[in-house]
Write a structure and sequence with these properties.
By secondary structure, the protein is of the alpha+beta class. The protein has 18 helices and 33 strands. Strands 7-8-6-9-10-11 form a 6-stranded mixed β-sheet. Strand 24, helix 17 and strand 25 form a beta-alpha-beta unit. Helix 2 crosses helix 3 and helix 16 runs parallel beside helix 17. About 5% of the residues have low confidence.
């Protein structure tokens, strides 16, 4: 609710104009302090929007006449405006829609849902089910569980009891409508209808992703892009054999996973594109890891089969090594051979997309208020924020109040991927909207509401909560809290393995995958040779994974990035230690006595060799301090070559206890002389800690 004066300010009209419209509509508003109800506001909104459309049409007509006159005088080509009749048709459609606008189903909870709260007792559950407590105690006894109404009940047992009464149990924390990222909407099966599949194409640069999208879309997007690399995120929908398919175009797997890391699961199917003349490249492997981690069906498009150097069998063999076995070889991954440039195999690819979509039966409920995700957003100086969104459930309509991330507003315009203004957007349709008070971010979730007051309230609440939590880290799995998470229902522990050599990767992977503690297993979502990269951290954050480094050391920038993202990195040099700690953590027995503390790093800049002393490394202290007799690792190209002790530290001719950052010194390593310029010394101590 709001006063007439507040409403006038909100729609940029005078109080007099609003009072006049109230009189026309039969609203008994006497002065500027009159309190308008939600229904009053909806009625006024419809009239105000119609007036705005008519004023806009008059302005456009005048503008068109001016352009035509200028064209006659200057004989120069000008931009033609949309024909007057079309604009009027659009305005009439808007009027008709506002006139007959019905309430959609609110995104509220079904009466069939029972909420579970941590620490709930049997008696509490009985009250929610509206049954005697003794009845639940008896049912628990039949399940072999002894207790009273005052005993706590865990989620699993509560779920069994609730099911017995034909109801469904949900955790209370997932049912806060203001936190719609985790909000669970319950749709009746009878309300669900088929929706188009949403497809993302990923792969190595220059393997033909943009050309394929361009060929499918029958436009020339690829020609205008610098270097053939997609510059922005966009979305569009095509119609093939009477079935719509939506394509999301991302700049790469990192952007795709960044959105996933923020809770935006927008894709139903991922297509990995590989050039037949180039084969599987490092970025291809990364794209496969990210696609698999998303937990959606993966298809393969082998592109450029028309090129002289094409070798399809070689590419298929390489993809088998990446865990994608072709259906023609007895696997479960659909492979397509195409030439995006020549248009070869495109129909077969689209047929297979429809096949996968049919098997998975993607459905949504168009009769409720819309929910979905931001694909991209930009700020226009004249219009304000212009936001491309994907509607994932419900129907988004003109005039709907909406909250997007921490922004809010009312949908003022809806434009489809062809640039046409539309009245409403159904599930899986990408559209551009305007009307928000600020510009949101890619990956932000959105939800439409019945009233503008509710949308404003939730938007402001979310903004305040974000500001409050800006400095808190996202919750990720760590070995320290693993046992508690397993107790909450965690059944799979995601792990990323990075090691110095391929043999180590396979040994660590094999050892971890054999661990099973009370039906909880370790799932390796990526394993490769080399240093830990930003891509690994992005994937770990999106997948709630722990990174295990074996015989490698991340540099300071990577350590800082992991810390910033709340991702845990565990480093080892003995395989049984990896297994031992993982098993102990899964059993809740992890009890480390010592924790490693890096005290300083030094870079070798010059070598001095003496027959009696060995190799003295002329070094520069880049961080912290280097102490005499401290433990040290010798690192070359991110790989640990040696782990031992510092034998001596010298400044000029004197042996010293320690040297600080920014100074130079001579360092000798106990029992190790194979030092090279550029090597990194990482000094550390084992510090006793309490759990």
């Amino acid at each position: 609710m709001m006063t007439v004066e507040e409403y006038a300010l909100d729609v940029n009209k005078s109080v007099f104009d609003i009072l006049k419209k109230c009189e026309e509509l039969g609203i008994n508003a006497t002065d500027n302090e009159y309190m308008l109800s939600e229904d009053n506001i909806v009625e006024l909104d419809n009239v105000i929007d119609q007036i705005s459309d008519e004023e806009e049409l008059e302005e456009l007509d005048e503008l068109a006449e001016t352009y035509e006159e200028a064209k006659e005088v200057e004989k120069k080509p000008v931009v033609r405006l949309q024909p007057k009749q079309n604009k009027k048709d659009l305005a009439n459609k808007k009027k008709e829609m506002y006139k007959n606008k019905e309430k959609l189903k609110a995104n509220t909870i079904s009466d069939n849902i029972v909420f579970y709260k941590e620490g709930m007792t049997v008696g509490d559950l009985a009250k929610k089910l509206d049954v005697p407590g003794a009845e639940l105690v008896k049912k628990l006894f039949q399940l072999g569980i002894l207790g009273t109404v005052n005993n706590n009940i865990n989620y699993e047992n509560a779920e069994l009891l609730v099911l017995d009464y034909g109801k469904e149990l949900k955790r209370e924390e997932t049912q806060d409508v203001s936190n719609f990222e985790t909000y669970e909407v319950m749709d009746d099966v009878k309300d669900l209808v088929e929706r188009p599949a949403v497809v993302t194409i990923m792969g190595h640069v220059d393997h033909g992703k943009t050309t394929l999208l361009d060929t499918i879309r029958k436009s020339n997007v690829a020609e205008g892009e610098a270097g053939g690399i997609t510059q922005a995120i966009s979305a569009y929908q095509i119609n093939y054999n009477g079935k719509p398919i939506t394509f999301i175009d991302t700049p790469g797997h990192a952007a795709f996973t960044e959105m996933r890391a923020r809770g935006a699961s927008i894709t139903d199917i991922v297509i990995i594109i590989v050039a037949a003349d180039d084969g599987v490249m490092p970025q291809t492997r990364e794209a496969i890891d990210h696609a698999k981690a998303a937990g959606v069906p993966v298809m393969v498009a082998i592109n450029k089969i028309d090129k002289p150097g094409a070798n399809v069998d070689k590419v298929m063999t390489e993809l088998v090594d990446c865990g994608l076995t072709p259906d023609s070889w007895g696997g479960d991954t659909i492979f397509n051979q195409i030439s995006a440039k020549q248009g070869i195999g495109i129909n077969e690819l689209l047929d297979n997309i429809l096949l996968v979509a049919g098997m998975n039966e993607y459905k949504a409920n168009p009769s409720r208020y819309a929910m979905g995700t931001v694909i991209e957003a930009r700020l226009d100086k004249q219009v304000g924020p212009i936001v491309t969104v994907l509607v994932q459930n419900g129907t988004l309509r003109l005039g709907d109040p909406i909250v997007v991330g921490t922004t809010y507003g009312k949908v003022r315009t809806l434009v489809n991927d062809k640039g046409e203004e539309i009245m409403e957007a159904i599930p899986s349709l990408p559209v551009e909207i305007t009307g928000l008070n600020e510009t949101p971010e890619a990956g932000d979730k959105f939800m439409a509401f019945e009233s503008e007051k509710q949308a404003r309230s939730i938007g402001e609440q979310r903004k305040a909560e974000k500001k409050l939590n800006e400095n808190t880290k996202s919750e990720v799995v760590t070995l320290d809290d693993l046992f508690n998470r397993i107790g909450e229902g965690l059944k799979e522990i995601n792990v990323i393995i990075k090691a110095d050599v391929h043999g180590s990767v396979e040994a660590v992977k094999s050892s971890l995958e054999k661990i099973e503690v009370e039906d909880v297993r370790v799932k390796v979502i990526r394993s490769s040779v080399g240093a830990i990269t930003e891509s690994d951290i992005v994937l770990a954050k999106a997948s709630n994974a722990i990174i295990i480094g074996f015989n490698i050391r991340p540099n300071n920038a990577i350590k800082d990035y992991a810390k910033e993202q709340g991702v845990e990195i565990r480093l080892y040099d003995i395989i049984y230690k990896v297994v031992e700690e993982m098993e102990a953590a899964m059993k809740g027995m992890l009890d480390p006595i010592f924790e490693e503390k890096i005290i300083g790093t030094a870079e070798v800049r010059q070598l001095f060799k003496f027959s009696k002393v060995g190799t003295i490394a002329g070094s520069y202290i880049t961080d912290g301090i280097i102490k005499n007799n401290a433990k040290v690792r010798v690192i070359r190209d991110s790989v640990v070559l040696y782990d031992g002790n510092i034998n001596s530290v010298q400044r000029e001719k004197d042996t010293v206890k320690e040297v600080k950052k920014g100074l130079e010194c001579g360092i000798t390593i106990e029992n190790f002389n194979d030092i090279k310029v550029g090597d990194i010394f990482e000094a550390y101590e084992m510090v006793e800690i309490e759990r």
